[in-house]
Amino acid sequence: MPITVKDYTWDETETSVHVVVPLKGVKASKVDIFSTDEYLKVNYPPYLFEVVLFQPVDDSKGTAQVGDGTITFNLQKKEPGLWSRLISLNSEDKDLMKSKRQAAIDATHKKAQQEKQRQQVEKQERDRMALKEQMRLENEERQRIEEVKEAERQKATEDLEKWKTQQLAAEKEREETNKQNVDIFDDEATDAEPLPAVRKHPGSTDKTQTEVKGQPPPRSSGNIQVTFTPRIFPTPLRESKVQAEEEWLKKQAEARRVVDIDDPDLTEEEKNPVWLKDKGDGFFKSGNYLAAVNAYNLAVRLDSKLHAVYSNRATCHLKLRNFIKCIEDCSKALELLTPPVDANAKSRLRAHVKRGTAFCELELYVEGLQDYEAALKLDPTNVQLISDAEKIRATIQSTVE
């Protein structure tokens, strides 16, 4: 049963009330203070000070100071005037005190909840503004880079056109030279039989002149144009994988169909899932994993078929130790990476490794080993994967024993 403190003092002015409560030798660190507009409570076992005020005060402007063995309350009255007493006229009513106490506690909890919600809204707004500012800076940098690239492309195009002009001029000069050589040779062949440079023996035949007369003219130079059939996949075409590759290309075409979201707060760039993916990649490289996840989340809203977004978001969740979400994103990425073709082998390998790591962090070593074995089928010579798989097997065996 607490001991009620009654030897407190108080005084007032037209606008304020001052209450001094003695601590009676109790350390200040063990004092619990609770106050609202109509209720004051100081709990420092075994003592208890509790009053319902005569009139309400402005709790947001009140202060409580602990020091020199006392607690001093400086309270601001809501309405100016003299009270002539500190405690409410109905303070002896226990039911009233109980209801006032509960109302004060509820009001305090509600105020704390409202303050927490306000802080959350402010934090979300700050994060949003920071993200937009970061995107703006990245966009300016991207535009600058594009301008530099465009200037380089124009210079390269001009150099190429200049080189082509030089080549055409050189080609034309070679053709003129060849034509002159052919004309000279034809003239010599159609003239009357010239005097031989070497006297012939009687009975010999003019074999040399016959060969010269039958020799074809020299060929003119030229270029042979070879056109190759365009191919998206970097590997040679295999008839056995044509159907799988066509299905993969069809899924990629579906993934490029962007969902139109009618949100006036989003810019045109923020409605581009590929741009958002690149933005998330930039945040990840800088170590801002939460911002990367936010960018990937918006990209998924716009296009739920991009396997790279799920895979990269899984990496962020793995860094943030959100292992369940990492497993979900890896599973979704593997679902989109079907059918299995050579073009998506590396993506499937990374997804299996990340999901296996998340399983092991959750101590689900059997499931983790299955993913590592699937990764080893894609890259059987990877030394690191072989070593990690052996460690997981050893962990499973030690657990069973």
TrEMBL record:
Span of domain CS: 3-87
InterPro entries from the UniProt entry: CS_dom, CS_DYX1C1, Dynein_assembly_factor_4, HSP20-like_chaperone, TPR-like_helical_dom_sf, TPR_rpt
Domain of life: Eukaryota
One BP term from GO: cilium movement
Record field: compositional bias (Basic and acidic residues): 107-126
CDD domains linked to this entry: p23_DYX1C1_like
Keyword Cytoplasm: yes
Keyword Cytoplasm attached: yes
PROSITE patterns hit by this protein: CS, TPR
Localization terms from the record: Cell projection, Neuron projection; Dynein axonemal particle; Nucleus
Pfam family, one: CS
Region (Disordered): 104-126, 186-226
TPR repeat segments: 349-382
CC terms in the record's Gene Ontology section: dynein axonemal particle; neuron projection; nucleus
Record keywords, A-Z: Cell projection, Cytoplasm, Neurogenesis, Nucleus, Repeat, TPR repeat
PANTHER family on file: DYNEIN ASSEMBLY FACTOR 4, AXONEMAL (PTHR46492), DYNEIN AXONEMAL ASSEMBLY FACTOR 4 (PTHR46492:SF1)
Protein name in UniProt: Dynein axonemal assembly factor 4
Organism name: Patiria miniata
